[in-house]
Amino acid sequence: MISVSISEEVATACPDLHVLVMSCDVCNSESDERLWQEMADEEKAVRETVKLEQINKWLPIQATRQAYKRLGKDPNRYRPSSEALRRRILRELPLYKVDTLVDLINLVSIRSGYSIGGFDADKIAGDSLVLGVGREGEIYHGIGRGELNIAGLPVYRDAVGGVGTPTSDEERTKIGLDTTRLLMIINGYSGLDGLESAGKYAATLLSKYVSAINMEAELVTVKDRAKITL
């Protein structure tokens, strides 16, 4: 599995950060209607239980926003993806159908509140990712967003450059219908509580909808890395 580590710069600003890294072999497909029924059920639950002004006060989202502020980014201009998805639901805007893997990751993010990186593992350069902080002028093309100013955002980098932030992943390593190896990173800026539950939910969906096999999972902090079973 690709090694993921956290830089001291991020660890100092975000001392509660725990990262759950998951990898598996998958069989991706066009958007699955059964999965979208689960998505519809989740959307209904969000609309019935959450108000728009409450979204950024939910701990997983609130902690991610606080991380942005500590690192120098305005979270109201560059919203974490989990917040953006929930805001879209409450504004009665349709969610995008991409493919089963991407849709599945979005569902986990909506339910858990975590911003989640989803990557085609075969497109990652090298065998490691390091979570650092975006720099002024650093070139980064967010998926469907064009060139994105990631200065002050937490960013995972491989041997070539940035591949993922909590706002948007990078075009270069994005998931496609031809993806057969998934790397999934669940970013727990609020700490450990709830992180493994999100991972178990993700593992269930991955097995159900993309026939995931050879599943591996690691819990990563700045000081430690431990394999876990989901």
Describe how the helices and strands are arranged.
Layout: E1 3-6, H1 8-13, E2 18-25, H2 33-49, H3 59-71, H4 81-90, H5 100-112, E3 115-120, E4 128-133, E5 141-142, E6 146-147, E7 154-157, E8 162-164, E9 181-188, H6 195-210, E10 213-220, E11 225-227
Parallel strand pairs: 1-4
Antiparallel strand pairs: 2-9, 2-10, 3-9, 4-7, 5-6, 7-8, 10-11
- Looking across the biggest beta sheet, what order are the strands in? 3-9-2-10-11
Report the sheet with the most strands, covering strand number, pairing sense and barrel closure.
5 strands, antiparallel
Fraction of residues in helix: 25-40%
E-strand count? 11
How would you classify the helix and strand content by structural class?
alpha+beta
Q: Let me know the average pLDDT.
A: 97
Shape: globular
User: What percent strand?
Assistant: 15-25%
Output the number of helix runs.
Answer: 6
Q: Which stretches are low in confidence, meaning pLDDT under 50 for 5 or more residues running?
A: none
Give me the strand/helix succession. Answer: EHEHHHHEEEEEEEHEE
N- and C-termini, Cα separation: 15 Å
Radius of gyration, in Å, reads: 16 Å
